[in-house]
Design goal:
The chain has 465 residues and is of the alpha/beta class. It contains 8 helices and 28 strands. 19% of the residues lie in helices and 27% in strands. A hairpin with a 5-residue loop joins strand 20 and strand 21. The structure holds adenosine monophosphate and magnesium ion.
Length: 465
Amino acid sequence: MSDEATQELTYSATKTGDRDILPAGMISVEEARARILERFEVLPPAEVPLLDAVGLVLAEDVRAGFDIPPLANTGMDGYAVRSADTSGATYDTPLTLRVIGYIAAGTVFDREVGPGEAVRIMTGAPIPPGADTVVPFEETDEYDWATRESARDPGAWQDAPRDSVRIDVAAKPGANIRPAGEDVRDGDLVLARGTVIGPAQVGVLASLGLATVRCHRRPVVAILSTGDELLRPGEPLAPGKIYDANAFSLAAQVRAFGGEPLILDVARDTVDALTGRIHEALGRADMLVTSAGVSRGDFDVVKTVLAQEGEIGFWTVRMKPGKPLAFGTFRSPDGRTVPHVGLPGNPVSAMVTFELFGRAALFKMLGRLQVDPEAWRRPTVRAIALDRISNSDGRRFFARGIASLRPEDGRWVVRLTGPQGSGVLTSMSLANAYAVCPEGVPAIEAGEECEVILVDRDLPIPLPA
Ligand code: AMP
Ligand code: MG
């Protein structure tokens, strides 16, 4: 039976009378989310290899242990000289300095650059003592010389010693020199606790020489599909069977939200099968997500198992798709509380409910709500509906749509992706947004404005002509 048809169930406490997880009657999306979030904790910190930390949250302040750059160095390829020695140089009245050495990036030149001397220096190499400026190649005869040398001996000229260099322009003291500590000073707070690690942060951590970083652990989310009808992709299709889409769409969502999915084998619709799978998950996961078995047809099996094994509430959320939702907690063998979200089986409902509730739960475990309690929110825009969005039964309707900026007037517009049934998964695969029809509003007419939640804007979805 579909989740749309479970209108009149009276959900009640199944085991403990825990009123917190067992609200009576229909609840709003906000209330369901708040009750779910209450049961999640930020995961403990762990030392994580740098690249694995992308998407995680720093569990402690990161301070610099040295200056970056550690030494003053040149920002240009050129000649390190004393600026006083170049005074008066012009293209018409150039000067000549004696070349006493060559410094590549990564080496240190420890001789002093004396009056009348120059050192050929490559970008990033430390400024030698005595020099206070770098004359870039462009302001010397370097290119004339290089052209001449390479014509004579291609390949060998770069390291060829040269005795002298022509300086065409007077250099200002400090020109083209990047001072030590220009980016970071020893002891600076570089990244604060609570920072989400992305490409730039990982780069900064690497520049500090850190191979690992202390972050809140990445949540492991066990994903369990239930149903006698389910086959795994790759198996031959058989009469009466369908492929398990939910395990994969949910696992991909877990990944997109920053978690690590753990797909369990499908559980058949029996108490034993379900019990076995749940035990399998509890030792290894921080959260359990099941799909199907919370609508009326399957209600009893799931109810029995969950009531035996944990604390569970069955909720009716005023949303469409995805009205029935189970939420509860289990205890792991090592004494952790493992929250369980029981999603509806219909593939669209499963994804929409996981977007609305699972994302926030993952963000909480990741520590992303510590700095910004609303960090799980997607950007929303007001958009003009290009199609009529009808909402038959008064629940909040999340219609799958394609949102885009209309070039003519720069306004956001949203078009529906076609049939909106909870089993029509392609309506999700064509969408980049949910157009929201509020509770109690029978329709948004074409041309009217509505709220649009932008989802996965960085996935390329071709816009219809
Ligand atoms: P149920 O909640 O068990 O009544 O399932 C509702 C609908 O979702 C039924 O049509 C199921 O066949 C379908 N369904 C359940 N689980 C999955 C799954 N993992 N992948 C695709 N469809 C599913
Ligand atoms: Mg079923």
